[in-house]
Amino acid sequence: MATITVKIDDAKAAVLRQKATEYGLAPEQFVSASIEDLLSQPDPEFDDAARRVLSKNEELYRRLA
Questions:
Q1: Which sign does the torsion angle of CA 15, 17, 22, 26 carry?
Q2: For 2-59, what is each residue's pLDDT tens digit?
Q3: What is the domain range of residue 20?
Q4: Rounded to an integer, what distance in angstroms lies between the CA atom of residue 12 and that of residue 22?
Q5: Is residue 5 part of a domain?
Q6: Residue 2: inside a domain, yes or no?
Q7: CA within 20 to 30 Å of 49's CA: 6, 21, 27, 36, which one?
């Protein structure tokens, strides 16, 4: 597992600690969960391309079904 160090100003660190406390987590756990959530979101460009392809070929898919 990799370790990444990030510097944030004191005010943001205080907000981070408060948010983590609200969720019953340590600040490190809160940041890790937030990063996992961010990275698991699909790429919007891919979603747009997939929708265009599905829409464009909708009639073909209906015939094949």
A1: positive
A2: 999 999 999 999 999 999 999 999 999 999 999 999 889 888 888 888 888 888 888 8
A3: 10-64
A4: 15
A5: no
A6: no
A7: 36
